[in-house]
Amino acid sequence: MHVEKLGRHFEKEIERVKEIILRMGSLVEASVGQAMDALVRRDPDLARQVLREDEAIDQLELEIDGHCFDIIALHQPAARDLRFIVTALKIAPEIERIGDLAGNISERAIELSDEAQLKAYISVPRMAEIAQEMVRDALDAFVRQDAEAARAVIARDDQLDVYMEQIFRELLSYMLEDPRTITRALRLMMVAKYLERIGDGATNVCEMVVYLAEGHVIRHGGIHPAAERNGSNGPA
Length: 236
What we know:
Layout: H1 2-41, H2 44-75, H3 79-113, H4 123-144, H5 147-155, H6 157-177, H7 182-214, H8 225-230
Helix pairs in contact: 1-2, 1-3, 1-4, 2-3, 3-7, 4-5, 4-6, 4-7, 5-7, 6-7
């Protein structure tokens, strides 16, 4: 009976970690959206609100750490359960960094709100939509432990790279034609780069989801299955 009670408590703790990660992800996704709204609407007050709310995201990361360490100490999980805890501990900082990037976008939005708008915002908001979708789908893949869905998110990262290169080329032409646009163009380039890094963060989460679901690493090229089975690092 005692064992059954411990088992139920363990399952509740695992579900609690999932819930906190989802709440953290939801806040981060909203922060990215609000930061972009602040940029497009030229609303520095909204941008400052995003910066203030970053503390809540930081606190949730600490909460995830606490729950995971408690689970390890009290239940000594093994095999797949331990993989889940390790994955959660690695995913939380990735989500927190995405929140920081939303803060960076907000800082650029505040700066740009004091200057004449350089151009209509079309590609940058589209980048933000893709990045937000990637974050949302990455977290959904984590909760469902769905490696196939995670790989689908990873494949979409190329879209952000294409948009970023397009935006960089366009803004570079502005700077070459009129040096007075350099500061504004550089700030918009930074926003595009932040959005590209948000996509990278979602990709990192998905690579961890594949590890959680399948038990092998795909980051940095991963481990070759044959080498993994033979206990070696592959050909010299």
